[in-house]
Amino acid sequence: MITGFVRFGRLLPLAVAGGLFVLTAGTPVPASARGPEGIADTAEKVIDAVVNISTSQTLKNRDRDEDAAPKKNGREKGDPRLPPDSPFNELFDEFFKNRRGDKSPQQHKVNSLGSGFIIDTDGFVVTNNHVIADADEINVILNDGSKIKAELIGRDKKSDLAVLKFQPPEKKLTAVKFGDSDKLRLGEWVVAIGNPFSLGGTVTAGIVSARNRDINSGPYDNYIQTDAAINRGNSGGPLFNLEGEVVGVNTAIISPSGGSIGIGFAVPSNTVVGIVNQLRQYKEVRRGWLGVRIQQVTDEIADSLGIKPPRGALVAGVDDKGPAKPAGIEAGDVIISFDGKAIREMKDLPRAVADAPVGKNVDVVFIRKGKEETRKVTLGRLDDGEKLAEASLKVPEPEVEKTVTQKALGLDLASLGKDLRTRYKIKEKVKGVVIVGVDRNSDAAERRLSAGDVIVEVAQEAVNSPADVKTRIDKLKKDGKKSVLLQVSNGEGELRFVALSVD
Hints:
The chain is α+β, with helices and mostly antiparallel strands. Helix content is 17%, strand content 36%.
C-alpha cells in the first residue's frame, strides 16, 4: 500500500509496505522530485497580476400557485416528506403555509468566484466568458484584497474568453505579458495561479502533458493539457512558463468529483492574444470565412484519391456566396495548406481560417485529381449562422416501395425521375442517381448511406444513370482499386463524400 501527498501535481511515496525501500520524514527528497527551483521566483514575480473575479446575479424565484401544484397530506408537491410522528411536522407546516400565502415574486442573489489576470496597467483583465456570463455585477479583487467594480469590454463564446476593465487604484498595477505557446514542449514545467474553491490566490505547478487537444467544446478547440492542479475557481486564471509569461488561460478540467485529477486544459496564448486584441478594439471577434463545408480525410477516402499519407480537409460543398466559389475551389478538393499553414487534418482548417484577418488575400493549396493547385482567396467574415462543421450525415430514410433498376456495392439504384423526386423530396437542382435501397450487411450501410440519397459522382466523375455507376465501379475493380469515392447529396443538395470498398 502506498500513501503519500500531492506536491506540484505529483504523488510522492512515503512508505511501501513490504517493498524494497522506505522514504521517511528524515530522508531528504531529491531536488529533482521537488521540481525546478524557479517556481517560487516565478510565482513571486507575477502573483500580484492575478486577480479574483467576483460576480453576482439576481434571480427571481418562480411564482408558486397553490392550485397549480398537486398536494399530498396538505403539502405541495416537492415539499419535504416527514414521518407522521415527526416533531418537525408543525414547523414545516407553518413554513409552507406562509410560503403559499405569499404570491409576490421573490428575488435572491447568486454569487460566484473565478480568476483572471491583468494584461495592462490601465486596468484591462482577461478571464473566461463562463466566469462572468449572465452576471449583473462584476468585481475585480486584487491580491492585496482591494475590491473594484469592473465593466465587460467584450466576450467570445466560441473560445470562452472575455476582457474586463476596471479603474486602477492609486498604486501601480502589476501586468503580465503573453509568451509564445507554440514554443511549449511536452514535459515543460508550467505554473497555474488562481482562486480554487474560493480560498484566495493559490499557486500550483506541473508539466505540459499534451498540446493541440480537442475536447469537443467548440469549433476551434486547441487546448494545452497540463497536470498542474486546476480546480473550481481556477477558471480564467493564467498558466505561466518559468519566465513569468502567460502561455495559456485555464479553462476546463476532466474530473468526476470537481477537483483536480491531473487533467486540466488551457487556451493557448497564441489564440488568446488575437482574440483579446479584437475584443479591446472592436468589442467583438471578427473571424475569417472561406465558405466551404468540410469532411475528415479518412484512410478509405485518401486511398480512393491516391493521397499518401492521409491528410488535409476534404471540401464536401462550396457556398455559392462564399469567397471560395469565385476562387475556383470545388467540392472534392482536398485542402492541404492555408495561408502558409499546413492542414494535416480537418480540424486544422477552421482554426487557420478563423485566425486569419477578414479581407486578407491568402494562398489555398489543394489536391485535385492527384495534382496540387494553388488559388488566391479573399477572406470574408464569418457570421454566427455560418456552418463550418463537417457535412451532415443525418438523412431521412422513408419507408417506400423500391424501384430497382441496378444493383452495385450493396445499393439498389434507380434513375432520378419525377416520381422519385416527389417520393424522396429531392430538389430539382440535385442531379445524379438515386439510392432506393441499402443492404443492411453492406459497407454502404456502415457508411450511413440510405434511401433518398443521390450519387452525384463516382471517382470524381459525374453519373446520370445506374448503368454509369456500374460501369465506373467495374472499371475501378479492373484497375485494381480497393475503394471507390462517391459524392453523395441529400434531398436539399448538401454534399458529402463516402468511400466504399469495391470488394
